[in-house]
Write a structure and sequence with these properties.
The structure is a single chain. The chain has 6 helices and 14 strands. β7 and β8 form a beta hairpin.
């Protein structure tokens, strides 16, 4: 029997169609085994296409999936209609107020963030790796939603599976990028190294942007091999590639 697609939901987003998907329920094999949705991986294209179809059907059947060419930027696209996969704009977040669209961001350790002002009917999805979070992708997504008519204090945001502090060792040069105001997000490690709390840092940036409700799922992509892909885990093992999971939100 085929394993069903695992859809992890956040309570703060209520009945809005959404899901943080991992690797369960897909057709890919080998090092990409599971629900790999990354066009940029070296997986078979037919498998990626089928996994994307399954992801959509698990969250908002019949919706048009919209993703971007992610570049670890603070850039946000306001979506009014879907575009072809081979014409994806370079950005790291999407917002919309249009029904029938399913916004998606891909991750493999970075933090996926879903946002919604349910009263106004506005949604957003952001890919917040350390570079994008430091550059302001969370604040830019909130601002783009506000431009559509959302209110910051009404926005609920959920931070999905990402690499946890216990799995995220960084060097001194990395720490220096965040110093000195963000020392609380680092735990001392071996000489010249520290452990970075990406999830808490993203939550702080959302709070500073005025987001009214913030939920952290507390799921570690690196440690949860059976459920999630992880770029860092694949790198540490010397594997030649890695899968990507997808996070989705839409308006029916």
């Amino acid at each position: 029997m085929t394993e069903p697609v695992e859809v992890i939901r956040a309570s703060c987003l209520g009945s809005i169609p959404h899901g943080f998907l991992g690797r369960r329920g897909g057709v890919s094999t080998g090092i990409h085994a599971g629900l790999n949705v990354g066009w940029g991986s070296d997986d078979e294209r037919a498998a990626v296409a089928e996994n994307r179809r399954r992801a959509v059907e698990a969250v908002l059947p019949g919706a048009a999936l919209v993703t971007v060419h992610q570049v670890h930027s603070p850039d946000v696209v306001t979506v009014t209609e879907p575009w072809p996969d081979d014409a994806r704009p370079k950005a790291d977040a999407l917002v919309t107020d249009r029904p029938g669209l399913l916004l998606g961001v891909l991750t493999a350790d970075c933090a996926p963030v879903l946002l919604a002002d349910a009263e106004a009917g506005m949604i957003g999805a952001a890919h917040a790796g350390w570079k994008g979070a430091l550059g302001g992708v969370c604040e830019a997504t909130v601002a783009a939603m506000e431009a559509l008519g959302a209110r910051r204090d009404r926005i609920a945001a959920a931070i999905g599976p990402c690499i946890a502090q216990a799995s995220y060792e960084v060097d001194a040069a990395f720490v220096d990028r965040f110093a000195p105001d963000n020392a609380r997000f680092f735990k001392p490690g071996r000489a010249g190294h520290a452990w970075f709390d990406l999830e808490s840092y993203v939550a702080m940036r959302l709070a500073a942007a005025g987001v009214g409700t913030i939920e952290r799922l507390g799921l570690d992509t690196y440690a949860g091999e059976a459920r999630f892909y992880s770029y860092r885990r694949a790198t540490h093992r010397g594997e030649p590639g890695y899968g990507r999971e997808i996070t989705l939100i839409g308006l029916p």
